[in-house]
Amino acid sequence: MGNVLSVQNITKSYKSVRALKGISLEVPEGAVFGVLGPNGSGKTTLLGIVLDVLKANDGSYQWFDGMPSDVARRSVGSLLETPNFYHYLSAYENLKITTAIRGKGVDDRVQVLELVGLEDRMHSKFQTFSLGMKQRLAIGAALLGSPKVLVLDEPTNGLDPAGIAEIRELILRLNNEGITIIIASHLLDEIEKVCTHVAILKHGDLLVCGPVDESLRPEEHIEVAAEDNERLASVLRLMPGVNEVKLLNGVLMLTCQEGIGIAQVNEYCIANQIVLNHLVVRKKSLESKFIELTNKK
User: Fold this and answer.
1) pLDDT by residue (tens digit) across 37-61?
2) pTM of the predicted structure, to 2 decimals
3) What is the DSSP string of 54-88?
4) Are 198 and 191 in contact (CB under 8 A)?
5) In the structure, what pLDDT confidence band is assigned to residue 208 with cuts at 50, 70 and 90?
6) Strands, E, within 145-275: which ranges?
7) 10 Å Cβ neighbour count for 67?
8) Residue 149: left (phi > 0), alpha (psi -120 to 50), or beta?
9) Alpha carbon 103 to its chain's center
10) Distance (Å, rounded) from C-alpha 233 to C-alpha 218?
């Protein structure tokens, strides 16, 4: 499988504000690709550019290995802001209006309502829907015309926990149907639970990009202590595979290369005639890693 989207060195400025600073990334076919970052990081700007809503100052992008953009756009469904549905019309009638405006998906309405789990409520008025159901209908509107790729900007914004769970389940179901999905979100939990790949933005810079299990792997620290922590620290700084040694609250925090665990640290200390009275592994949570990453200047 190839890439559905390739972005090369995209920059975008609004007067003195540089919203995107040379962003390059690739979205693999079949992925659920999360664009993650705090508000103001450039997520919506990036989506606007690849959807032809905004123009970049520099750089380029390609859908489907260079397919002409007008042809490619027919294979991309998007939800950048919630459509203006009529409260007094049913889901089916609202989609009828959407198809008339867009000129596509006329015969897709029932199939789309089934895909988003609203087939039993297709003739209910929009005003009777829960927030989660309203958002599912909005995603349904983006699915008209059977797109290969779905682009969603903050799809769970403003939803209660039940609505968030509904949208999360829908995203996974659509991906299982073979649709590549690109999601912008400021919620780490959302990205971690549904995405296969992630790009983390901050102030227009790309901090991390790659598979979720590699990019958001929680870091481990080894905590050690002995009767003489100063001597222990000087010995461990010489240990191959130990990158950093910090004294914190009476224990030493070790940052080690992959493959160095508590057994190797203990053996090294014994070989250097040091008896440890404290030796544990601490995992840094994904949330604390994300906060640390996005708070770095």
Assistant:
1) 888 889 999 999 999 999 999 999 9
2) 0.79
3) S--SEEEEEETTT--HHHHHTTEEEESS-----TT
4) yes
5) confident
6) 149-153, 180-185, 197-202, 205-211, 220-226, 242-248, 251-256
7) 14
8) beta
9) 31
10) 24
